[in-house]
Amino acid sequence: MSTIKNHVQLIGNVGQEPTITNLESGKKVARLSLATNENYKDSKGERQTDTNWHTVVAWGKTADIIEKYAEKGKEIAVVGKLKTRSYTANDGNQRYVTEVVADEILLLGSK
């Protein structure tokens, strides 16, 4: 059971063009927003869609794949883990960010 701790699988659409950063150490990091949709029928029987946005971070070869193939609107699957970090904002308040750190990316549908 220890292999399924902190395990995330998402299928969604890339919300905007990924941001690629080449660090001084030579490592590459990619960041993208991923929209996942959940469809349901409301009390009136009308179809509704609930969209959730996720920040995905990828390193190394996974970042290379994102840079080459993941564009706005592209459907992808992401496998990874949740990571929460904190920082101090310009106003002096402590902020927290939860991101999906991608281990694998699978390119699915087209735009």
From TrEMBL:
GO terms for molecular function: single-stranded DNA binding. It comes from the Bacteria. Gene3D superfamilies: Nucleic acid-binding proteins. The keyword Oxidoreductase does not apply. Keywords: DNA-binding. GO terms for cellular component: nucleoid. Pfam families: SSB. InterPro entries: NA-bd_OB-fold, Primosome_PriB/ssb, ssDNA-bd. Transmembrane segments: none annotated. GO terms for biological process: DNA replication. The keyword Signal does not apply. Homotetramer. PANTHER family: SINGLE-STRANDED DNA-BINDING PROTEIN, SINGLE-STRANDED DNA-BINDING PROTEIN, MITOCHONDRIAL. NCBIfam families: ssb. This is Single-stranded DNA-binding protein. It comes from Yeosuana aromativorans.
